[in-house]
Amino acid sequence: MKKHNFSAGPSVLAREVIENTAKAVLDLNGIGLSVMEISHRGKDFQAVMDEAVALFKEVLNIPDGYQVLFLGGGASMQFCMVPYNLLNKKAAYLETGTWAKKAIKEAKLFGEVEVVASSSDKNFSYIPKGFTIPADADYFHITTNNTIFGTEILEDIDSPVPLVADMSSDIFSRPVDVSKYGIIYGGAQKNLGPAGVAFVVIREDILGKVDRKIPSMLDYKIHIDNGSMFNTPPCLPIYTCMETLRWIKKLGGVEVMHKMNQEKAALLYSEIERNTLFTTPVERESRSIMNVVFVMQPEYKELEQDFLKFTAERGMSGLKGHRSVGGFRASTYNALERESVVALIEAMQEFERLHGK
Question: Rounded CA gap, 179 and 176, in Å?
Answer without folding.
Answer: 9
